[in-house]
Design brief:
Elements (H helix, E strand, L loop, with lengths): L4 E4 L5 H14 L3 E4 L5 H9 L7 H13 L5 E3 L2 E4 L8 H13 L4 E2 L2 E3 L6 H6 L2 H4 L3 H28 L7 E5 L2 H4 L6 H9 L3 E4 L5 H11 L6 H13 L5 E7 L3 H11 L6 E6 L9 H16 L2
Parallel strand pairs: 1-2, 1-3, 3-5, 4-6, 7-8, 7-9, 9-10
Length: 303
């Protein structure tokens, strides 16, 4: 059986589905190649091929795709529209397939998720059978096993995150999308700075999704962006334990600019809003973070 190699960009979707994808392809004995950690070369390449209206996260994603062009047979790019009528995704998650398809002359392997039209993740995976050269039974078994194992991995991370709420150190909720929080150029400098200053980081993506979405309705009942509802719901799930919040986003993210601004007006927990673009990556935040931590320390002393 001829083996194919699937390329996976280390950006956007990767930080939601990496465990599922890696375990799935491993069980089918299919080789994958993941682009490296975000670096200056990848960022510059992505920026050079993007337009000004694209958020920094999408520019980085395009850079990762460009890196993979000559290193695989197909690039994995799902098309995720919604998880139901009231749980839409960002336009990027819907349009990325078309953007990449028009920018590059490269074969794409993709699947659709559109629960409003009953297009489930499993159905999408099953339609990959011809490209992957596996029968649907093999794919179904591999998917179900990969889903179970990936959920177990996330459950362990969530448990650790929840246990960290009990820590006596100053605790800051780092609120943002995983593709920003865990990206080496966007989130890592902030995470490392906080850790070096003895801050316990609570991650907004490591709470139960359903609980977060339910809680988000307290802050706003008009938001229909699934991932933003998960983010803001984490505020209410952790509010009793955290000392402050860092809103982390990339310019010019539409959903974040709307939802975060609305929420900031309604909460009384101390916060700062960090917006990353291609002109200020890695610079300008240390002073703000230092001042924010100082405020939280003084506040804690006087409690």
């Amino acid at each position: 059986m001829d083996k194919i190699k699937i390329g996976i960009p280390r950006s956007l979707y990767y930080y939601y589905f990496k465990d599922l994808w890696q375990i799935f392809f491993e069980k089918l004995n299919i080789d994958i190649v993941i682009s490296p950690k975000t670096n200056k070369e990848i960022i510059d390449k992505g920026i050079s091929m993007s337009n000004d209206e694209m958020c920094m996260s999408l520019k980085i994603y395009i850079g990762h795709v460009s890196y993979l062009l000559d290193k695989c047979d197909y690039i994995l790019i799902p098309r995720i529209d919604n998880y139901g009528l009231e749980n839409q995704t960002c336009t990027n998650f819907l349009a990325t397939y078309d953007i990449i398809n028009n920018l590059f002359n490269k074969k794409i392997i993709n699947y659709n998720i559109d629960l409003f039209q009953n297009e489930t993740e499993l159905k999408g995976f099953l339609k990959l059978n011809k490209i992957l050269k596996r029968n649907k039974k093999q794919i179904k078994i591999a998917y179900e096993e990969a889903l179970k194992e990936s959920l177990n991995i996330k459950d362990k991370k969530m448990m650790k995150n929840i246990n960290n709420l009990k820590n006596k150190k100053i605790k800051i909720l780092l609120l943002g999308h995983p593709y920003n929080i865990y990206d080496e150029y966007i989130g890592d400098p902030i995470v490392n700075y906080l850790k070096n200053n003895n801050i316990e980081i609570i991650y907004s993506d490591l709470f139960d999704s359903k609980k977060c979405i339910n809680k988000s309705n307290i802050l706003t009942n008009s938001c229909y962006f699934k991932y933003n509802k998960e983010n803001i719901g984490s505020i209410l799930l952790s509010k009793k334990y955290i000392d402050g919040i860092i809103f982390l986003t990339t310019f010019p993210c539409g959903p974040d600019s709307l939802v975060n601004e609305l929420v900031m007006r309604k909460i009384n927990t101390p916060f700062i809003n960090l917006i990353i673009d291609d002109s200020n990556i890695l610079t300008g935040f240390e002073t703000r973070l230092e001042s924010f931590i100082d405020i939280l320390e003084r506040k804690k002393i006087h409690e």
